[in-house]
TrEMBL record:
Protein YjdM C-terminal domain sequence ranges: 45-112
Record SUPFAM superfamilies: Prokaryotic SH3-related domain, Zinc beta-ribbon
Lineage top rank: taxon: Bacteria
Source organism of the structure: Geotalea daltonii (strain DSM 22248 / JCM 15807 / FRC-32)
Domain Protein YjdM N-terminal, chain residue ranges per copy: 3-32
Protein name: Alkylphosphonate utilization protein PhnA, putative
Family to which the UniProt record says this protein belongs: Belongs to the YjdM family.
Length: 112
């Protein structure tokens, strides 16, 4: 038995197939089967050197990063532990000692 993906709108488990579409009976959302398959493939996040990143990894910053709206800077070589992968332009969610919670782009880090 194949498992169908959850609804991207309401996270309902009761989706069903209708031709080339998946349909959610709870919120009436419809999406293409190919869109669901490409979303899974796009969720792969790699660092500046092509290493695969996943939740809980430690990374090192490879460039001085100015913090928007602040005079603080994240210096080269800053180690960030226990990252979390999120979707969006800034795809790493983390806490940096002395600065706090922030989001980073994976292109400015390397896996430690």
């Amino acid at each position: 038995m194949t498992t169908l993906p959850k609804c991207p709108s309401c996270s309902s488990e009761y989706t069903y197939e209708d031709g080339e579409l998946y349909v959610c009976p709870e919120c009436a959302n419809e999406w293409a089967k190919t869109a669901a398959e490409t979303a899974e493939a796009d969720s792969v996040v790699r660092d500046a050197f092509g290493n695969l990143l996943s939740d809980g990894d430690s990374v090192t910053v490879i460039k001085d990063l100015k913090i928007k709206g602040s005079s603080s800077v994240v210096k080269v070589g800053t180690k960030v532990r226990n990252i979390r992968i999120v979707s969006g332009d800034h795809d790493i969610d983390c806490k940096i000692d002395g600065i706090g919670a922030m989001q980073l782009k994976s292109e400015f880090v390397k896996k430690a």
